[in-house]
Amino acid sequence: MSSDPQVLGTDQSPAEPRDLKLVHAFLQRVSSAFESKPFQVHPVFRSGHAQTLGAYAWPRRGRLKPTVADDEERFFQVAADVQVLAHCRWHKDRQEHPTMVIWHGMEGSTSSVYMWSLADKAYRAGFNVVRVNYRNCGGTEHLTPTLYHGGLSDDLRIVLEELVTTDGLNRLYAIGFSLGGNMLLKLAGEYGESAPPEIVALCAVSPSVDLQASTTLILHPSNWLYHKNFVRSLKQRLRLKHKLFPERYDISNLDQIKTIRDFDERFTSRANGFAHADDYYYRSSSVRVIDRICIPTLIIHAVDDPFIPFEPMRQALFTENPYLLLIATERGGHVAFISATNKDEDRFWAENRALEFCQLAETSFPTSESA
User: Fold this and answer.
1) HSE on the CB side for 219, CA within 13 Å?
2) Tens digits of per-residue pLDDT, 239-289?
3) pLDDT at 175 exceeding the cut of 50
4) Strand residues in 124-171 grouped as ranges (E)
5) Helix axes 349-362, 113-124, angle to 10 degrees
6) Residue 371 forms part of a structural domain
7) What number is the average pLDDT over the span 74-90?
8) Which CATH number is 85's domain given?
9) Domain range holding 246?
10) pTM for this predicted structure
């Protein structure tokens, strides 16, 4: 597991606690702004499943692909033998612009359509954009002998801190979808009061804050399609890892793996130093450290998310943390939120609220607070 984060600022000095009055005023401003733009579910995609599948199939990939074609590739060294690949889009004077750093969900990549979509909107709104793959994702299995897992918050920390110390960026906004949201929230909790001031705010969309609960829910018969696809993708990736690092992975019994939990018990936990799957789920779930988050944070989650349960977010720690704003919608599915209205530039409500959250933060905190 990762060690306690070493906090780095542009002046290499310890981070100061955030001004809670400023944070409270900012989150109140966000809440008020969002009240005038409630999520209204699209009449064709009313259920959680319809939302989730509809967002996946929505015909926007062809329009968005040209917008990312010229993005710069960037490799981050997150461990001695591990690199992750990011795709960056910079404004001419990058240090004069805020920067949005985005992580995808389980078995996704920087080419996931919601990554392209948010990146396109954020860049046009004046943000530099850095889309980051987890270890092994986006065709990068050769860059590490290891497997990724849902608790790799230290990888996120290294990426963010390199952008501060190497690139001189002083206004970072981090966005995580699904499993990436869990990693991001876990990192924020691990930072506690020592979070770098350059990380201005965070947003997690449909985060899997309790990995045990998520792994249980996806086994429900109604989720067979998602579960089947996840298991197939995980097994395909492991077969490729075996070809690249045959001495590291024994896949002789891989065909016996039928569930995500089986995979985590046999491979994910053992490859990453956990005692077993339950140990992995417990130690990697951000719900354990939500109460320690001291960075302004927005969580967007739908109650009808088919395979990432909302129940863990009913705990008081999600409403009692003054740095955290939870926006819970009755409908919206998983990383979907297809809206009935076209008041925004498109119908993807959660993406638009995540961007608006960052824009409001840009005008809510003085430079000395975010740099």
Assistant:
1) 11
2) 999 999 999 999 999 999 999 999 999 999 999 999 999 999 999 999 999
3) yes
4) 128-132
5) 40
6) no
7) 98
8) 3.40.50.1820
9) 20-365
10) 0.94
